[in-house]
Amino acid sequence: MTTDLSFDLERHTLGNGLKVVLHRDRRLPLVSINLWYHVGSKNEAPGRTGFAHLFEHLLFQGSENVGTNDHFKYVQQAGGVANGSTWYDRTNYFETLPSHHLDRGLWLESDRMGFFLGGIHQEKLDNQRDVVMNERRQRVDNQPYGRAYEVLYERLYPEGHPYSWPVIGYMDDIAAAQLHMVQEFFETYYVPNNAVLTLAGDIEYEDALARVERWFGDIPAGRRPIERPTMPPVEPTGQQRATLEDNVKLPRVYIAFPGPRYGDRDWYAADLLATLLASGKASVFYQDLVVSEHLAQDVAAFILPTEEPSSFTVISTGRPEVDPEVLERALMQRLTALSDKLLDESDVERARNRLLRYHYTELQNLSERADSISQFTTYFDDPAGVAREIERYRDITARDLRDLAARFLTLDRSVVLTVVGES
Amino acid sequence: MSAKKPVDRSVVPAGGSPRPFSFPQVASVQLANGLKILSVRMPEFPLVAVQMLVPAGGLANPMDRPGLADVHGSLLEEGTKSYTSSELALAVEQLGGSMETGAGWNVAFGDISVLASSFDHGLDLISELILGPTFPEEKFDWVKERALAELMRRPSRPSLLADDVFSKAVYDGTVYGFPVKGTPEGVGAITLDEVKDFHHRCVVPEGSKLIVAGDFDPDHLHRRAEELFGGWVSGLGSGKSGSEKTRFETPIIEPVRRDGVEVFVADRSGAAQTQIQVGHAGVSRSDPEFHILIVLNVLLGGKFTSRLNLNLRERHGYTYGVQSSFARRLGPGPFTIRTAVATDIAGAAVKEILFELHRLCEEPIPDEEVRDTLDYLRGVFPYTVQTTDDVAGRLENLAIFDLPLDYYDFFARTISTLTAADLEAAARKFIHPDRLVVVAAGPADELVPQLEPFGSVTVVPPAG
């Protein structure tokens, strides 16, 4: 099966340390601008959780030359689409514009990188704090099973581990954010030498680089030291268990294990294993638990793509009449058996083909492609690695998966959370 | 351009000249039995999306069997003449593909996405799903049980709860008054014979559409489609003798008549937030003025810088986001505004929503706002048709509503001529701030006093 994806790209570093990747694809008259700042919720401290994400909201509230609501206005009136997102390891900002408006996007991104603090004030912070508190209610507190992940990962990682708190943060911490924290955070992390800028789409290299240099070249490098948090090791401490009561009608079981870091060979094996087990209707757990045994309403498994050692999580919602303990036993038996018995190579091949199609599907979208390029540049200093990533799954065998399961998916490393209806 | 020239940051940079863009050429072929094939070739990535759409959507649900179309749609992939359910899943997924069957309000669908190298196999499997389902009894029981479990957990999602209460208030007495997934009573009563009968009446070549987008050979597609589907005849007349099976006829949807604003509070005591849904019955997607509603909606609540979002989110901080929409349905689907807010300001949020609706219908729309909205819609179009799935979705829109093949160019041309006066007239004609349903899902004891000023309040107790 072909996995050839030729990626035409160029990389540069400006004098101030900003890494720039240019990727030309003239199929559509569009350009995606994608900026990664290497800062995320892992750079927060306990008591100040959620700040990186709140900060992302503030970065859409204008800068010295851009009015409060004008970022979106200028993008949308040009026919563009913009957004940002915060993750454990990074914060990204991106817009896709008709390619003749490239300068407009570079102006907006460079103005908030270089001239943000002059435009920020208390009223903007108050407004966006309210917005974010509503975001948390909408996504977490008012959703069935909404708090499950934070309860799960608080237990999977040791106390104080930067992945142990949720990216959106705890409500009290969001409410306590102060204006002085904004300046310090900005001056430390929102500097050109802590960022990657990717332009993908309808560009010419020389012209695009000149424009980037014009808009970003004058922004001074940061002067504060950038601290990368240390990750305490996640040691097996014996199985941990928790039960959460929530406004739910069907019980759900979450099982998580500490996993490998994104980019490692083990990570790709874990991704392949998760796909094999629970992605698609032919997947092993779906056929067993949902189709044959009528125990589960649904099942899913995933490994998070985090820069530091990650987590492997399996989730299954029980049928209304099923005791969650029965479902948990069924899942755990199957997971721990993976280290004893080889999976069929045909299942491995099925999962690999699924990932191949998924990969192509994602890369069709210019904005996703630009984001992958920024990611590979930020984590691995290897933008061209995006085109080769699918090769990473190629030589993984059933034996590798058994070996992975033996090292990672063991009972004494597991955290089990059961969510049940309120009594 | 010189790299040395200092930049002037105080003004928005002027853009160059736009590169023209049109929606790719759509090939359209109709077989003798009525099946229509719409396709777009996109050779850049080795993927193909294939969809069969048949006129067996929720609009065809009998009034006492809401959810029948959904159960039927789910069963299409649960066993066919040549494959068991599990064999079918494996046949698709072994080669990296994915498959889904189901039903929305307008149509039932069989979708398969595959790597281009498996395109033929994908087409064969589509014909299995549509022409060869066997509806095994044991799979019927399984699908029904799963559907009932989904309905059981539905009200714990605040947005679904609010939508269900809203639909009943606006469309009670019609199929649109129920969720498209049905009700526990309706789905519980469905029999296997009813599913088979529904299949015979509704899964017919007349009105069905095959959609293909991606990397494939069009001549080959048309040849294969003729081989696979040319012999497809409608199941009517081949059923039991003496039965009066007739083809499904589109029902007339008569929304509930209403003067004034009526409030429904779906009680969720202890909820962390209140889900709000405001609106009324709208018009069919086939309405000749629908393209104006698309523009009007973007201005009101269809982009980040819409009136509603700038007011409720950016000015007041009441919400993470607020959206409006005119549903795209064959019948007169709803016009809705949806948002989630802190419970203590729910009344204030509803007040701002009503304010924006009145303002839109009663005050002139500034030319600049019209221009910004049109520029956004025209400029953003290429962004929305990047992937095979994007393009398949656009073809689906053409197919379901029988829009002309050059519709997207027509849309871009036509909206360019719209003026503030056109949008103002459309607002007055299609938006009715004085005949609204307001639904709030949250703690009733806190919500009722806040919402009483807007109209009569009915509290809907939690189900079960």
Structure description:
The complex is a heterodimer of chains A (423) and B (464). Chain A has 15 helices and 11 strands. The model of chain A has no long low-confidence stretch (mean pLDDT 96). The longest helix of chain A has 20 residues, at 122-141. In chain A, the strands form 2 sheets. Chain A has a 6-stranded mixed beta sheet, with helices on both faces. In chain A, strands 7-11-8-10-9 form a 5-stranded mixed beta sheet, with helices on both faces. Chain A is an alpha+beta fold. Chain A is 41% helix and 18% strand. Chain A folds into 2 domains: 9-216, Metalloenzyme, LuxS/M16 peptidase-like (Cytochrome Bc1 Complex, Chain A, domain 1, 2-Layer Sandwich), CATH 3.30.830; 240-421, 2-Layer Sandwich (Cytochrome Bc1 Complex, Chain A, domain 1), CATH 3.30.830. In chain A, a hairpin with a 5-residue loop joins strand 1 (9-13) and strand 2. Chain A has helices at 51-58, 70-77, 102-114, 122-141, 148-156, 171-175, 179-189, 205-216, 265-278, 284-292, 324-337, 345-364, 366-380, 385-388, 398-408; strands at residues 9-13, 19-24, 30-37, 81-86, 91-98, 195-201, 240-246, 252-258, 296-303, 311-318, 415-421. Chain B is an alpha+beta fold and 464 residues long. Chain B folds into 2 domains: 27-229, Metalloenzyme, LuxS/M16 peptidase-like (Cytochrome Bc1 Complex, Chain A, domain 1, 2-Layer Sandwich); 262-460, Cytochrome Bc1 Complex, Chain A, domain 1 (2-Layer Sandwich), CATH 3.30.830. Chain B is 39% helix and 17% strand. Chain B is built from 16 helices and 12 strands. A 6-stranded mixed beta sheet of chain B has the order 1-2-6-3-5-4, sandwiched between helices. Chain B has a 6-stranded mixed beta sheet with strand order 9-10-8-11-7-12, sandwiched between helices. Chain B is globular. The termini of chain B are far apart. The model of chain B is unreliable at 237-244 (pLDDT under 50). Chains A and B meet through helix 2, strand 5, helix 3, helix 4 and helix 8 of A and helix 2, strand 5, helix 4, helix 10 and helix 12 of B.
